[in-house]
Amino acid sequence: EPEVTQTPSHQVTQMGQEVILRCVPISNHLYFYWYRQILGQKVEFLVSFYNNEISEKSEIFDDQFSVERPDGSNFTLKIRSTKLEDSAMYFCASGADPEAFFGQGTRLTVV
Amino acid sequence: GQQVMQIPQYQHVQEGEDFTTYCNSSTTLSNIQWYKQRPGGHPVFLIQLVKSGEVKKQKRLTFQFGEAKKNSSLHITATQTTDVGTYFCARLSNFGNEKLTFGTGTRLTIIP
After folding, report:
1. Mean pLDDT per 10-residue run, chain A (111 residues)?
2. Which residues contact A50 (CB under 8 A, 6 or more apart)?
3. Between residues 14 and 43 of chain B, which touch chain A (CB distance below 8 Å)?
């Protein structure tokens, strides 16, 4: 069964450092997403990506965040200067109507 | 924004008892999806409902979409320990591959 894969599974970083979270979506999907989930809370939309550009982003997705699809398979989320409040589980997802397939997530801990 | 609220926030049931979670929106929904997230896991798609009054069943799970398309429910009959997790409803912003707005979730724990 095809799946979305994310690396690393856990990332610890110092406040102010840049992090790149990586995802390999399901190959024939057209829409890609990043969501985050602060511990014990609901899943929040960050950004959607279609046809090599951002199609929608939330107010959380400020100038510190960026996404890229550097090649045909990878989809990355960069946080330029991490803050303590960026600590969360980050899920990548890819879409095939109607279902969104989520990766296992990257737990980001900012210290 | 268009929030989707769920109740209850937590539910503890004895194994074998039934469980229901409710999802409510102040605005009409074009569709509603349900996801299950096991402890430490990721959201997994269960179902999508699009029609007013729609009812769908998956084994012991029954999903309903309200007549006014402002609420939905998930009912589990005779819970098992494998049902443990958080159940989220989610609204797809357009009827296509756009963003999901998740509800607040109901965390189900089972007492063996």
Report:
1. 93 98 92 94 93 90 94 92 97 86 97 97
2. A30, A31, A32, B97
3. 31, 33, 37, 41-43
